[in-house]
């Protein structure tokens, strides 16, 4: 992967990750009700837990992509 492409994908990942974190800060704008119970949690709590899970899996993908890239550079 070229340096330019790596920078571009890193910037895109950073923007998406930042938006996910901001969504957690402002969840009360669209998940401010305690009534729909999803998996035993109020909507707001379910929303926060699901965003944290999305962040975890996104970081795992980023880790494996960077690991694959560094292994490819080491072999050549």
Report the biggest beta sheet as strand number plus sense, adding barrel if it closes: none
Question: What general outline do the C-alpha atoms trace?
Answer: elongated
Q: What is the percentage of strand-forming residues? A: under 5%
Report how far apart the termini are.
12 Å
Any idea how many domains?
1
Radius of gyration: 17 Å
Share of residues in helices: over 70%
Description:
There is one protein chain. With 76 residues, the protein is mainly α. The protein has one domain (3-75). It is 74% helix and 0% strand. The protein contains two helices and no strands. It has helices at residues 3-25, 43-75. α1 (3-25) runs antiparallel to α2 (43-75). The longest helix is centred in the last third of the chain and has 33 residues, at 43-75.
Question: Outline of this structure?
Answer:
The protein has one domain.
List keywords for this structure.
76 residues, mainly alpha, 2 helices, 74% helix, elongated
Write the topology of this structure.
Elements: H1 3-25, H2 43-75
